[in-house]
Amino acid sequence: MMTGPAQIVKRRTTAQRVAFSLLTLASLLSFLALGAILYTVFRKGVSAISWEFLTKMPKSGMTQGGIYPMVLGSFYLTAGALISALPFGVISAIWLSEYAGGGWWVRTIRIGVNTLAGVPSIVFGLLGFAFFVNVLGLGASLLSGAFTLGILILPILIRAAEEALRSVPNEFREAALALGATQWRSVRTVVLPSAIPGIMTGAILGIGRAIGETAPILFTAAAIYKTRLPDTLIDTLMSRTMALPTHIFYMATENPRGWQAVDLQFGAALLLLGLVVCLNLGAVIWRTRVRRRKQW
Fold first, then answer.
1. Which domain holds residue 88?
2. Which residues pair with 241 in a beta bridge?
3. Where are the beta strands (DSSP E) in the chain?
4. Are 214 and 245 in contact (CB under 8 A)?
């Protein structure tokens, strides 16, 4: 039996509708799962959110009081990770994009970077424990945790920065070279400023990844319970620190009285989730605004 053009078109249209229906269903299931998580955490944790909860020290085995040192520790760890990783990420991306060319070894490096981006975070935690804590002798400290998180987000920063650099039109480079600029001056004064919005978007996404990680700092920086903050900067860098992810973990699994403070657990989870969502949403909004400016 011969198949006519009308039947072929009908078959393709049916296949297209089925594919779109499956994609729509998958999207709806994803949004439903996200909505269920957000609703549960919000419903159980919103009662704990208050100014005192955010600014007071914990007490009574963390079953009372606030989470101020956890918020401060998460900020220090994330800021340290970004400060330690961003320069290396941008420099590596500049080399890969502008100087490395397209040899097999460059492709191998890119494959390695992409592979590192998918490595489980606990592996980075073991690496940080072996290298920063033991080999370099930094001990379990905020500095070790920040460096470990920096290595964790480094592949994200490299990929984002490289894509941002490669998105700059070649005409910009050619115009700078035609005016007598060296390649480095062209990169420094023309290409890099044009790529900064994309680089910063990647940095925000890296922050969102680092602030929610638990495994890397369990081995390198986490403190279970501290009743006071360090007095000096050196003490802060070289001592253990409390953080939101590890606080939630300890309260849910290790604290024998954790069941007495379920609202505090979900309150900390709500704050952490809110920070991650805001950072990722901010990156999306920033990227959208930058694209609109380029279109104009």
1. 69-249
2. 222
3. 58-59, 64-65
4. yes
Q: How is the chain split among helix, strand and coil, in percent rounded to 5?
A: 80, 0, 20
Q: Tell me the two tokens of residue 151.
A: 């290595």
Spell 265-282 as b/e; 16+ CB within 10 A means b: bbbbbbbbbebeeebeee
How far is the C-alpha of 240 from the C-alpha of 255, rounded, in Å?
A: 18
Neighbours of 12 (CB within 10 A): 10
Domain CATH for 164: 1.10.3720.10
Q: Quick one: 51 exposed, middle or buried, by C-beta within 10 A (0-12, 13-18, 19+)?
A: exposed
Identify the H or E element spanning 109. Answer: helix 104-117
Alpha-carbon distance 296 to 293, whole Å?
5
**Tokens (6 digits) for 195:** 């790529």
Residue 179 pairs in a beta bridge with: none
| Residue 217 included in any domain | yes
CA–CA separation, 88 and 136 (whole Å): 19
Note down pLDDT in tens along the chain; length 296 residues.
445 677 777 777 888 888 888 999 998 998 999 889 888 888 888 888 888 888 888 877 777 778 888 888 888 999 899 999 999 999 999 998 888 877 778 888 888 888 888 888 899 999 999 999 999 988 889 999 999 999 999 999 999 898 888 888 888 888 888 888 888 888 888 888 888 888 888 888 888 888 888 889 988 988 888 878 888 888 888 888 888 888 888 887 766 665 566 777 888 888 888 888 887 777 778 777 766 765 55
Cβ atoms of 176 and 189 closer than 8 Å: yes
The answer as to whether 166 is a domain residue is yes
Report the alpha-carbon distance of residue 282 to residue 258 in Å, rounded.
33
Q: Do the domain assignments include residue 35?
A: no
